Amino acid sequence: MANEAEYFFTPYALMLIPRKCHDEFFVKFNFLDVPCLKIALAKALGYGIVIGSAMVKIPQIVKVLQAKSVVGLSLLSILMEIISLLFSAAYSIDKGFPFSAWGESFLMGLQDVLLVVLYFYYSGQFRFTFLFVPAYAASFYVLGSGMTPLSVLEKLQACCIVMLTGSKLTQIVANFKNGHTGQLSAITVFLLLAGSLARIFTTIQETNDIAFLRQFIVACALNCILWGQILYYWNVKVDKPKKA
Fold first, then answer.
1. DSSP secondary structure code for residue 28 in this structure
2. Could you tell me the pTM of the whole model?
3. Phi and psi (nearest 5°) for 185?
């Protein structure tokens, strides 16, 4: 039967699109089916965001390592983002959302943890790492392993938009006060802006979760402001702090 047609790429195609869309594209050769095109685009964007998220903070990490300085970075901003990403990942796991819809929350969280470690190291507070890393690991296990009731996770997810807003605004205010963006990576901010914009579309297509959607709309708006600051302060030179 036509709807049972199999090709060598069918198993891989089914990772992105449902069987009905596979048949629409590769059996009926109807490549202009709008609902299936939206599904395919959302899935491709979703996995693209997840793959990109594994590297999105790397430019920021490299910039800190090269400068051996965390000037311009807000520790409070990073910590609030970590909490927001942690709540989002745990909520998504419990709701059974596909990894393509939330994987970046986990991967970006790990990179933020590394940034916090670097922050403690270059600010002479490395001892706090031995408290922070175990606390993060324990929190992720408790929230993401099914031990925490969904009703609690829903409340935590509702807090994400507040934490996310606080995180971005803290960095935005710090930039205004400093009169520069310091070691803030232009590449990382641009990738975050592009990712949050794409996430608005994928969230509508894959989960249609209003809490998720609000979160990415706010993230997109605040990332626009951060990107604007980077462009505005582009030529401002930052004096490196002198060692005691």
1. S
2. 0.70
3. -85, 125
User: Who's near 85: CB < 8 A, 6+ residues apart?
Assistant: 105, 106, 108, 109, 112
- Using the CB atoms, write b or e for 107-140: b if 16+ within 10 Å: bbbbbbbebbbbbbebeeeeeebeebeeebeeeb
CA–CA dist 222, 196 (Å, integer): 10
Find tokens 């935590």 and name the residue: 156
The predicted model gives 117-139 an average pLDDT of: 92
- 3-class DSSP state of 10: helix
Could you read off the pLDDT of 146-175 as tens digits, one per residue? 899 989 998 898 888 888 888 889 899 989
Look-up of token digits 């600051």: 229
Distances (CA, A) of 115 to 8, 61, 120, 183: 43, 6, 9, 12
pLDDT tens per residue across span 46-63: 788 788 778 888 999 999
pLDDT of residue 172: 93
What is the chain's mean pLDDT, rounded?
A: 85
Residue 62 CA to residue 76 CA, distance in Å, equals: 20
Residue that has been written with the tokens 């996430």 in this structure: 199
